[in-house]
């Protein structure tokens, strides 16, 4: 799904901006007996397509972030993401690429823009001791488990009975589990307390297990589909977090960053700040207000360290004056 969306977004953006110079606008794009269609005619029509506004906004944001943070993106990181997309697409990659009308270099350019966007957001994330301590309160270090995922309770009970009778967990993973990860990796999964890809019910039950223990059946209801899946987990390697917060500083910092990046208010305010700093101006009269919803956001979402220092200095001065009085 991710690769298809990537190709679609690129196609729309490239169509909308295939020719944006004044001279190109006047060029004939289509000719027929008795008339012609200019590039401007096509561009004007494309602007009216449903979703065009979003595509243009996306292109502007991506270009702004690429211009500011693109040089910080390593080629190896672009190649890594490109290979992931290619691997996910499998044998259909070339045909999907051809249908989208893009080249590999254009896909890599898009990846670079996305990585630059993430880099830009991360620069606005504030990591301080208060936030780290708050995460620490509910933090459990990374564990490794094997899991079996089943579609109904009846199957789950049968599998649990087999496990209680001593049947090999790995064998049951291959025979019974419906999860993709389970089938491809012997059911092994690693996660910590703030891993978003693992259901909370599974994490909570897993953390209580000692090495080698097998859980009871863990029902997990999907709030979107209203369907319930059933998990059985075997603990491979659990660990206590202890009292040394410094030991997990890197993990805690990453959790703080990820939580901020998943906060839509934070993301919108970050984008607003970057667009303002880049002095974005739309010269096309028909699109003059297209960026307004992104530029004009409520303040106080993203911490500005310089402003904080100024306010702190003003507060100290004010307190000193009151003291003297």
UniProtKB/TrEMBL annotation:
SUPFAM superfamilies: FKBP-like, Triger factor/SurA peptide-binding domain-like. One of its GO terms (molecular function) is isomerase activity. InterPro entries: Foldase_PrsA, PPIase_dom_sf, PPIase_PpiC, PrsA_foldase, Trigger_fact/SurA_dom_sf. It holds the Pfam family Rotamase. Residues 179-197 have a biased composition (Polar residues). Keywords: Cell membrane, Isomerase, Lipoprotein, Membrane, Palmitate, Rotamase, Signal. It comes from the Bacteria. The keyword tRNA processing does not apply. Its EC number is 5.2.1.8. It is a lipid-anchor. Residues 1-23 form the signal peptide. Residues 295-325 have a biased composition (Basic and acidic residues). Residues 140-237 form the PpiC domain. Residues 174-197, 294-325 are annotated as: Disordered. Its main location: membrane. It is found in: Cell membrane. It catalyses: [protein]-peptidylproline (omega=180) = [protein]-peptidylproline (omega=0). Plays a major role in protein secretion by helping the post-translocational extracellular folding of several secreted proteins. PANTHER family: FOLDASE PROTEIN PRSA (PTHR47245:SF1), PEPTIDYLPROLYL ISOMERASE (PTHR47245). Belongs to the PrsA family. This is Foldase protein PrsA.
């Amino acid at each position: 799904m991710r690769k298809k969306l990537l190709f679609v977004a690129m196609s729309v953006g490239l169509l909308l901006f295939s020719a944006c110079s004044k001279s190109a606008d006047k060029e004939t794009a289509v000719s027929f007996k008795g008339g012609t269609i200019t590039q401007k005619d096509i561009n004007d029509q494309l602007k009216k397509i449903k979703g065009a506004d979003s595509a243009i906004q996306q292109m502007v944001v991506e270009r702004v972030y690429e211009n500011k943070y693109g040089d910080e993106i390593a080629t190896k990181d672009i190649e890594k993401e490109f290979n992931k997309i290619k691997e996910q697409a499998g044998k259909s990659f070339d045909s999907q690429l051809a249908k989208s009308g893009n080249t590999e270099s254009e896909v890599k350019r898009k990846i670079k823009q996305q990585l630059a966007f993430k880099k830009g957001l991360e620069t606005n994330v504030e990591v301080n001791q208060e936030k780290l301590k708050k995460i620490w309160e509910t933090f459990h270090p990374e564990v490794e488990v094997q899991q079996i995922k089943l579609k109904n309770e009846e199957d789950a009970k049968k599998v649990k009975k087999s496990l209680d009778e001593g049947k090999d967990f790995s064998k049951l993973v291959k025979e019974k589990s419906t999860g993709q990860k389970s089938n491809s990796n012997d059911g092994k999964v690693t996660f910590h307390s703030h891993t978003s890809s693992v259901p909370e019910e599974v994490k909570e039950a897993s953390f209580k297990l000692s090495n080698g223990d097998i859980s009871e059946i863990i029902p997990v209801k999907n709030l979107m589909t209203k369907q319930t899946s059933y998990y059985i987990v075997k603990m491979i390697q659990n660990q206590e977090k202890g009292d040394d917060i410094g030991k997990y500083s890197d993990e805690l910092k990453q959790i703080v960053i990820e939580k901020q990046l998943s906060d839509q208010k934070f993301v919108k305010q970050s984008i607003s700040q970057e667009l303002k700093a880049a002095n974005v101006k739309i010269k096309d009269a028909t699109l003059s207000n297209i960026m307004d919803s992104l530029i004009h956001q409520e303040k106080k979402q993203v911490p500005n360290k310089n402003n904080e220092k100024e306010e702190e200095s003003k507060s100290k001065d004010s307190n000193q004056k009151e003291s003297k009085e």
